Amino acid sequence: MEIRVEKGVAEKHPSELLLLFSFESPEPLEGPIKVVDREWKGFLSTIINQGDFKGELFQCRLLHTQGALPSKRVLLAGLGKKEEFDLEKWRGAASKAGQWIRDSEIKQFAVQIRSIRGFSEEELAESFVTGLLLGIYQFNEFKTLEREKIRRIEEAVLLGETGEEIGRIKQGIDQGLVISEAVCMARDLANAPSNRITPSALAEKAGEIAKDQGLGVEVFGLNEAEAMGMGAFVAVAKGSQEPAKFIILEYNQGKGMDPIVLVGKGITFDSGGISIKPADRMEQMKADMSGAAAVLGAMQAASRLQLPLHLVGIIPATENLPSGKAYKPGDVLKTLSGQTVEVISTDAEGRLILADALTYSLRYKPKAVIDLATLTGAVVIALGDYVIGLFGNNESLQKTVEEASQKTGEKVWRLPLWDEYFDYIKSDVADFKNVGTRAAGAIIGGIFLSKFVEKTPWVHLDIAGPAFIEKERPFMPKGGTGIGVRLLIQLLRDWR
Predict the structure, then answer these.
(1) Which pLDDT does position 309 carry in this prediction?
(2) Is the separation of the CB atoms in 255 and 306 below 8 Å?
(3) CA-based nearest residue to 481, from 489, 472, 490
(4) Residue 177 in this model has a pLDDT that exceeds 90
(5) CA 116/CA 165 separation, integer angstroms
């Protein structure tokens, strides 16, 4: 879809459809809808006063103009209660309106962007584009039948009244496109089957991003990882015939800035290994690389936005499968850090590959490390599938993540990493076990990872709940969500 900005006003702009937003009744009309109502001789006010459109959040109502306006149709879209308005509701309203337009087979629409409740045209344009593109996202790559019935919007025109407004809207569009494209890429990676998205495919995607954006890229194979001493990563990888890849992307290297390291779990399919999972919903384990997808998306977006930061993205990528070469419960693994781990469950493989990745990240002497992983089912029990579990060893870094969460609507909730929890993973034969009891499962995963970051400021984001969903939300269709990309980008844009 082409998204562009033009100089114009809603009541005079010709289009297939004019999109107008309104707060919930009895709020008086304001902004473009008020002017259009006056041009239409109070017709919209009549519709609202009759109760045919109430402006409730995400409500949509189509009207035909019958030549009363240059636009053929008007779509009224509700913003809900005025006092509750924020950018998250704006993104959701843009998403729902976009879905309505697409499903009605209307190919083109226009909308005037004007400051609302203290939010600038740039903020509103960025959030509108983000909500729109994420809302109309479809994953159709592998469908061959009736492709002609796939519905798409071809053009969206954002209107600005003055040159200054147009400049701010253009900036917002550009930023929204970069962020949305990164999220959609992460969604595509998570939605695609694991026979296509292998560790090698993730390495190829990293290479494409590096080539397009001028990033540094390095990929280690299994033999190199073993020679370096990554005993945990290698143990998990040996169960699969798919070649494992340890992927490193670097942006703005050599410019004298201390790096921020992003680490993403890249299990491209997780059967559970010898501790095999139940068959029910195992097909969703193709998305166990959603942390890796988020890191790739964030690295792509950060470089396109030209953020003034030194970033390193690290992705340990492998499958976790049972075979004659697979690691087993009871095995003791020596990690890159030199610490040893007794394997209790091979289905707790994510923390093993992350242990070596986190240790490797310390070679960059980073000022912060952030990892993202679909680490535990326990975090879903604790927080549901709407919320990311937030863990860390640095108060300031955790607060920064929480602030980014509030701006993006990608919800996080802090869970503790108190020393007492370490008792759950003490081992009789090694430094610690890779799982504890059933109690505090998500926290145990975080405690385990904390042993591999030393004193470096670190945050662990357990995205197991919202990474792959079965019930759609305003701008999150079913399946892979690309969760974490917008959160990371907001965090990095606000970095101080």
Answers:
(1) 98
(2) no
(3) 472
(4) yes
(5) 13
Question: What is the mean predicted confidence (pLDDT) over 399-425?
Answer: 97
CB atoms within 10 A of CB 11: 20
CB atoms within 10 A of CB 419: 7
Helix (H) or strand (E) holding 61: strand 60-64
| HSE-CB for 380 with a 13 A CA cutoff | 13
The count of C-alpha atoms lying within 13 angstroms of the C-alpha of 133, restricted to the half-sphere facing its C-beta, is 26
Beta-strand relationship, 340-342 and 245-251: unpaired
Active site residues: 277, 351
The pTM score is 0.97
Q: Which domains occur in the chain, in start order?
A: 2-177 (3.40.220.10), 192-493 (3.40.630.10)
CA-based nearest residue to 244, from 223, 264, 272: 223
> Which residues, 6+ apart, have CB-to-CB distance to 420 below 8 Å?
none
3-state DSSP assignment of residue 373: strand
For the chain, the average pLDDT equals 97
pLDDT score recorded for residue 437: 85
pLDDT of residue 149: 85
Question: In this model, does residue 148 exceed pLDDT 90?
Answer: no
